[in-house]
Amino acid sequence: MKKQEKKQVKELESLGLKLVQDIEKGRNPTMEFTLRSLSNIVFDERTKTLSLGKKQQQRSFFNVGHAKKFMQTLEVAKVSKNLIDVQKHASLRDVFYMAKRTIPNSNTNIVDEQAESDNAIEDLELITDCSREQMHINANKMGSVAGNVVVEDAGDSINWSKLGSGGWSIPSNVEDIEFKSVKAKYVIYMEKQAVWERLHEDKFWEKQNCLIVTSQGQTTRGIRRLLQRLNDEHDLPIYVLADFDPWGFYIYSVLKFGSINLAHMSETMTLQNARFLGITADDVTNYDLKKHFIKLKDVDYTRLKQMADYDWFAKHKAWQRQFKMMKDFGAKLEIQALSSKGITFISEKYLPDKIKKGEFLE
């Protein structure tokens, strides 16, 4: 067992011992942990991140409303302890199937849907103060990275600049990755795989001495943690490249300030120094992109209003200007609209110019 895993084992065993003591003393076995709900989410003005408040919740075995979730939490705790003991990792889907079975002498399953085991794992994170990755539970790989970096992962030396057209597939758990060499001035993170492939084919990372990262959509925990490590450990600025729409802005918001679902992980999941590089309302004018507009739908207007009302954006004039201009346009714009200026326009003109001129939002 690795030295850093002893904390996880200790926390899991402490949970079990506490419940055993409750039983031995004739008490109702009870777990107590921070309430994970919207009513307990606060925006920390000092750190500029979302975090959980001080409200606590209890989950007791002899409570009809708690019993099943109580059992689910213990089940995933058992699965995690077993995984650490045998030095193996499992996916979220694996854990679901490992926990899914019928309780003897009943017609009730411990879990019926993966959402139940996923929620139990997140509760266990709060109870133990250990991430699911530390407890040997991983999500699917959904991202790529390229650049002049050499890492050691599971005993293998991996050069991110020599992995062909697909780049390095970012794992769910990046805690044990050791950076051997990092030669870059900054990182560009983008939501779209197609844009990443364009920059990779153009060798943008080599010409501009940077790293390019994508997650193929909403950012995974592994990618968020990797970006934070590059920022914290190697002082690399993080630029976010997303569509000019409420959802692209939301991706940036989650990266920089955190998310409601992962407020308990803010310390290891947020990028307080992240900068939004584009696409912006100003790009629409500067690069004559109005003819590529996509009309906003009702759901877009709803999300846009939610974004404008967030505490961290409400008093930010530059961001409020972006929200207003999008609303006035009544339209959104995809990054790929830049291809209308030429297939390599984004790598040869757009990104180099914006970074050189410091045209970004914070």
Largest beta-sheet details: 6 strands, mixed
Tell me the number of helical segments per DSSP (H or I, 4 or more residues long): 14
Mean pLDDT: 93
Task: Indicate the CATH topology of the largest domain.
Answer: Dna Topoisomerase Vi A Subunit, Chain: A, domain 2
Report the uncertain regions: none
Describe the structure in your own words:
The structure is a single chain. The chain has 362 residues and is of the alpha/beta class. It is 43% helix and 17% strand. The chain has helices at 5-24, 67-86, 92-99, 114-128, 193-201, 204-207, 221-234, 246-257, 266-269, 281-286, 298-309, 311-314, 317-329, 345-357; strands at 30-34, 41-44, 49-52, 56-60, 90-91, 137-138, 144-146, 149-153, 156-159, 168-169, 178-182, 187-190, 211-214, 238-241, 275-278, 294-295, 331-332. The strands form six sheets. It has a six-stranded mixed β-sheet with strand order 10-7-13-12-14-15, sandwiched between helices. Helix 3 (92-99) packs across helix 4. The protein is globular and about 70 Å long.
